[in-house]
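HOLO CASE FILE
Compound: zinc ion
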Amino acid sequence: MEQTALFEKIGGIMHGGDYNPEQWLDRPDILAKDIEMMKKAGVNCVTLGVFAWAVHEPREGEFHFEWLKEIMDNLYENGIYTILATPSGARPAWLDEKYPEAMRVDASGHRAHHGVRHNHCMSSPIFREKIAIMDRKLAENFADHPGMLLWHISNEFGGECYCPHCVKRFQNYLAEKFDHDIDKLNHAWWTTFWSHRFNSFDQIEPPYSNGEFSIMGLNLEWKRFTTWSMTDFMKWEISVLRDVKADVPVTTNFMKLYDGLDYREMAKELDMVSWDSYPAFHNDRETLAETMLENAFDHAVIRSMKPDRPFMLMESVPGAVNWHPFNKVKRPGAHRLACFQAVASGSDTVQYFQWRKGRGSFEQYHGAVVDHLGTDDTRIFKEVEEVGQLLKKIPDVAGTIPKNQVAMIFDWDNRWAIDDAMALAQETKNYEKTCMDIWDEFMKMGVEPDVISSDSDFSPYKVLILPMFYVLHDGVGAKIKDFVAKGGQVLATYFTGYVDKDLLCHLGGFPGDGLSEVFGIISEEIDTLYPTDRNAVRFTNGKVCEVRDYAEMLRVSDAEVLGTYETDYYGKMAAVTKKKYGEGNAYYVACRMAATDMKDLFVEVLSNAGIAGKDLPEGVEYHVRYGAEKSFEFYLNASGKQITLSGVSGKDLIGEKEISGELILDPCAVAVIEK
Ligand code: GLA
Ligand code: ZN
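Model generated. Tokens follow.
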């Protein structure tokens, strides 16, 4: 699917968001005002129909699309395009009343009652039949509409279903996966332990909360199955739409590092990846710059799913959400920073949830562009309007992409497996945080890493970072070996290469699958420290850094020792090593240090790779997007004070002036430098 065509229609960055006119059909005055205000705010695209099933089909078989046609026509006539949603995110009451099997069963085996949203059984044949009728009609009516931009499949897919139908599909999925050979499964899951052997696939149940949760391989396969099953449902919806018209692109909106679905599997079926970003701005534990950096990591995870094209910020809020523990209002300027961060990270869209606040129910107080007050002179409306104007200054950014030379591997399987592993300390595993902290350190040096999967193509990268890279899928050991042999720089940490794809431990030394040869070490033991325990690493240059949480004891066969432990029975043993392997280098950090303490190592790795960083003042974020002829450098000032940057040159499209040397940025200001 040609995604560039999508943005050519818009002619720049998309700006808009979820629009729910179906809640206001009895208020034509408000609908008219919406269009007027959208134009004022620089909105060029809205998402329609996300939860409109009960309006589309109020009674089984009775369809009403006139309202939608009228809205879409009107929007289009006013220069506003539509992202059209399929409404499978929430079911009308008649559907659950007549077909209760469409409702989900939870981990304790209880079927849900009707209500809320995002809770259909993804296997239910009747639900698939009903949504197919709906999707086909939507496609027949709207796929050829001139304002139609792309399909928004369902909404924030998530959750699991333990109904009998899903259980049967799980068993079939396993049978397929293990070649219909139960002994293969028994071996992969090590089921002789605790007499867990199965005689047939029919005996296997999902990990019910009061059932079998002690087989790590089973737990992981259930997660993989849930991804497969949800993806299969999504593919069903896509196939119905494509059957009517093949060439309208599709997306679905992902959530922040949602761990229930392996988004990378789902992304393979989509033309565009998109996500909904709701950082806890101005919280009591982080600076604005820290909150921003965490969000930048999330953007990088999403972007890296399709590194050859822009991604989409599908939802964000210009004010406060209503579901955080504390729903703090976004301070003036933070909105501009967040919007430009999305674009800087590779998004071609800035979309909001929601255009207008509803009057009642669960999200009546959720932030929106238009408040209950209903006017275009509110602080928030004006900030949105300003963003709309600024985005119009950078039309050529659309379609460009970041091209990064450093990548971090961050796998969903790894998240699930580390979380489930009966090892280390439940409280301090912190896989995600460990990855983010390291990622942040590179960002502070002006080097943005992609966040990829072990299945990704490593060839665009010169440096690979492998934090707690616990699960090694088949062939990944060899892939890393090859990467280093050909001149790549790899840095791995403790808890790397312990298990294979089924979570069976590698024999003969960790990291397994050939990696101990690459690093020239074997990790013989891993010590878990209590939260108050400390050790330290003394580097050969005399620097001493604190160690917390985890420390591995290494047998060094063939590597240079860069640092040794200070205390305990493993004092003086190797803690950080480096091995030249082929044309490249393999670094191993055997213990948890603060990412800031690893900076010297990162600098060394980057310099080996010939990658120059940037001297950035604290709180300033830097990103680059590349096009065929031009590139765009983004500077975002989240420091809270005025900043002067030196060594910047090119045309600042935001400030509309040539910069040669010094760039001055006010708090929350952004610059986009065209080169
Ligand atoms: C999600 C959903 C929206 C809305 C927002 C509120 O992103 O997709 O429908 O509920 O959250 O923040
Ligand atoms: Zn089910």
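CASE NOTES: Residues 46 and 261 are 26 Å apart (CA to CA). The pocket of alpha-D-galactopyranose (ligand 1) is lined by residues 155-156, 276, 278, 315, 321, 353, 363, 366 (CB under 6 Å).
CLOSED: yes
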